[in-house]
Structures are given as structure tokens and as C-alpha cells.
UniProtKB/TrEMBL annotation:
Cross-referenced PANTHER family: HEAT-SHOCK PROTEIN 20 FAMILY MEMBER
InterPro entries tied to this protein: A-crystallin/Hsp20_dom (IPR002068), HSP20-like_chaperone (IPR008978), Small_HSP (IPR031107)
Origin species: Pseudonocardia hydrocarbonoxydans
Entry protein name: SHSP domain-containing protein
Annotated family: Belongs to the small heat shock protein (HSP20) family.
PROSITE patterns: SHSP
Record-annotated SHSP domain positions: 26-138
Length: 147
């Protein structure tokens, strides 16, 4: 049997229950998930921490440049003879919304899930990539701009 002796952890758990931000069964709203986001060349990469979440419990939606990630962590142990001794891992629905700029190509988002991390690769749209514009000599009587 596992025992806990940290009274401050119980105080924190009680506070979360009172304000509706923790403890299984009292979730009144989705909880945000931790993420990292960075640019890697011609794409943005976003990584979400979702340990203990099954890939089939993850939803990705894009609508009007808003990316919504929803995930649900379900209890691991359940059944008639299961008696929970310690329950510190949050259960329930986790949600995060990202507002994507017009410079990203939302039609070609690639998603993968490995070791509890959901990774999204979002390419930069062709229209947003820098391009060189050649300049011709005005004295030659021609003005040509290549895009």
C-alpha cells in the first residue's frame, strides 16, 4: 500500500477542488496542456505534453485559422475490485487553442504522437515565404519585376 505524508499536497488538492481546477470528477472546464512552439526552417513545430493519453483520445480541428487540440486522460485502473490508493494525476479533458496566422498553410498540417508528446508540423504558406525580386536597368527602357 502507498502512503503519503505531505500535508501541503492535501491542502493544494483541496484548493483545486474548491476552485474547480483539479481533482477527477470536479472538472468544470477543460485544462490547458503544456506546449512548446518554434520555427524550424520553412515550418512551425508545436509540441504538446500529453503523457498517459491514448492517441484515439486526441482530437485536432482547424477552423478559420484556429487550431483546437482536445485530449482526454482516462483512469488507468477501473473495475469492481479496484481500490484507488493515491490519485495525483489529473484526469479529464485537456484543451488548447492556437490562433494561426495567415502565413501558415493550415491545409497541410502533419501530426504525430510519440512517447506522450503530440507534435504538429505546420508549413509556412508559399505566399509568405521571402522571394527575391530582380531589378533591371531603367536606362535600358525596360522595367521587369519577377515574383
Amino acid at each position: 500500500m502507498l502512503m503519503r505524508t505531505d500535508p501541503f499536497r492535501e491542502l493544494d488538492r483541496f484548493t483545486q477542488q474548491v476552485f474547480g481546477t483539479g481533482s477527477p470528477g470536479t472538472w468544470s472546464r477543460p485544462t490547458a496542456m503544456a506546449m512548446d512552439a518554434y520555427r524550424d526552417g520553412d515550418r512551425f513545430v508545436v509540441a504538446f505534453d500529453l503523457p498517459g493519453v491514448s492517441p484515439d483520445a486526441i482530437e485536432l480541428d482547424v477552423e478559420h485559422n484556429v487550431l483546437t487540440v482536445k485530449a482526454e486522460r482516462r483512469p488507468v485502473a477501473s473495475g469492481e475490485h479496484v481500490e484507488m490508493q493515491v490519485s495525483e494525476r489529473p484526469l479529464g479533458v485537456f484543451s488548447r487553442q492556437l490562433f494561426l496566422g495567415d502565413t501558415l498553410d493550415t491545409t497541410r498540417i502533419d501530426a504525430s504522437y510519440d512517447a506522450g508528446v503530440l507534435t504538429l508540423h505546420i508549413p509556412i504558406a508559399e505566399k509568405a515565404k521571402p522571394r527575391r525580386i530582380p531589378i533591371t536597368d531603367a536606362d535600358a527602357g525596360q522595367r521587369r519585376i519577377d515574383a
